[in-house]
Amino acid sequence: MFKDGSVEYRYGKIQKNYTLAQPGDLVVGYQATPVKRLVAVARISRGLDTSGESPTLQVEPVARVSNGLSYDELQRDTLLVNSEPMRHRNQGTLFQLTARESEHLLSLLEERNPELQGKLESWEGIAQITRLTFHPSYSYEDFVEGFRPVDSGQGGLSLRLEDGVFKRVCLEAKTHADKVYLVIIDEINRANIAKVFGELITVLEKDKRDLAVTLPQSRESFSIPSNLFLLGTMNTADRSIKLLDSALRRRFAFIELMPDLELFRGARVGDLPLDVFLEELNRRIAASEGREKQVGHSFLLDGSRPLRDREEFARRFRQEILPLLQEYCYTDYATLAMYIGSDLVNEENQSIATREVRDADRLLRALIKEFISKAADYALDGE
C-alpha cells in the first residue's frame, strides 16, 4: 500500500462491512503472523465497486504505526477484547469497530505514537448535530446503554454492553469541551420519556450538568456535559402530548411555533393570496376544532419560499390539506363545507366535488370565491 499509493481489497470475511465502508472512513491495519501487531492507519479512498468480476474497495495509506498494539495487548484491553475483530481473532479482512471502540483505539495509537498527532484530524468522530426520532418502541438501550446480541464468531450469539447514541454524544462532548453539541429529537412525545431517559432525567437540568450519576448496567459514573443541548420537537395536535412526562416539562423550556402568515405577505397562486387563504382557513378551524389543529405554513412552502405553482398547489390541497380537514370532520360534511366552501363539498351526498379538486383552475376559482369574494362581501356589509 505504501509502495503503490493504494491497494484494492476483494470481498473477504463479513461481506456486510464492505457495503458499509464509505470514502473517508479510517482503517487501522493489522499485520498477522509473525508480527501480530497494528502497523498502519489508512483510509477508504473508494467505496465498494461492483462493476468488475469481483467487488472491491480501495484503501490509501495515511501513516505507518511504529508502536502499534500487539495481539496480546488488544486481548488485554477491556473494551477492545469484545470488538468484532478480536471476537474473530483477527482472522479476516475487514472488521467494523463501534464509535466508542474506534475513539478508544485511535486515542491509544496517538498516545503511543506522537507522530500520528495531526494526521488523524480529518476524522470527525461524532457530529456536533445528532438527529433522532422517538417512537413507541424506542428504549433506554437505544438512548443510553444496554446489552445487544452480537456474533460470537463461533456460529452463535453473545450479549455485549453497548453505548446508546446519547451516551456516545455526551462522551464526545466531554472530549471537546470547546465545541457545542446539539441532539435534536423529533416526535419526542411519542416515546416513554421516563423509560428512555432513565436516571439521566435527574441530571438533565441546567444547574445539574456535570453532576455524576452511576449507570445501573455498566456501573460507570456518568454525567451530561454543559456544552450539550437537547432540542425536542412535537406536534401539539397529537393527543399523546397530554401524556408527556411532567418531569420533562419541568426540565425543558417550551417555544410555541404557530402558522406564520408573514411568510406569505404578497404571495399568490394565480389570483389567490396565500396569506388571506391560510388566515381565514385557520380562523374557521380554530373556531371549530381549537387553535392546536390549525394548518401549518409548511403546507404552502416550496423550500423556504411561498408556493407559486398552480398545479403543485392543487396537488397539495388535494393530497395533504383536504385529507387533514376530512380527518378533523370525519363524516361531518357540513363542517367540512364550512371550512372550504359548498362549491367543493356536497353536504347532501357527503362527497367532494371531484372535478373542482382535481383541476387547478377550477380549484383556485372555488377558493377565491369562498375566501376572497366572501371576505370582500363581509367587509362591504360591515361598512
Please supply descriptive tags for the structure shown above.
single chain, 3-stranded parallel sheet, 383 residues, 33% helix, 4-stranded antiparallel sheet, alpha+beta
Describe the structure in your own words.
This protein has 383 residues and is α+β, with helices and mostly antiparallel strands. The chain has 13 helices and 17 strands. It has helices spanning 16-20, 71-76, 84-87, 99-112, 140-143, 165-175, 193-197, 246-251, 274-289, 310-329, 333-340, 354-358, 360-382; strands spanning 7-10, 26-31, 37-49, 56-64, 129-133, 145-151, 157-163, 181-186, 213-214, 221-222, 228-233, 268-269, 272-273, 301-302, 305-306, 345-346, 351-352. The longest helix has 23 residues, at 360-382. The radius of gyration is 29 Å and the shape is elongated.
List the helices and strands and how they pair.
Elements (H helix, E strand, L loop, with lengths): L6 E4 L5 H5 L5 E6 L5 E13 L6 E9 L6 H6 L7 H4 L11 H14 L16 E5 L6 H4 L1 E7 L5 E7 L1 H11 L5 E6 L6 H5 L15 E2 L6 E2 L5 E6 L12 H6 L16 E2 L2 E2 H16 L11 E2 L2 E2 L3 H20 L3 H8 L4 E2 L4 E2 L1 H5 L1 H23 L1
Parallel strand pairs: 5-8, 8-11
Antiparallel strand pairs: 1-4, 2-3, 3-4, 6-7, 9-10, 12-13, 14-15, 16-17
